[in-house]
Amino acid sequence: MSLLKSPMGLMVDFMVLMVFVMPKMMENIDPEEMKQAQEQMRNNPVSLSGLLARAQG
Question: Could you give the C-alpha distances from 11 to 1, 4, 19, 20, in angstroms and in order?
Answer without folding.
Answer: 15, 9, 12, 15
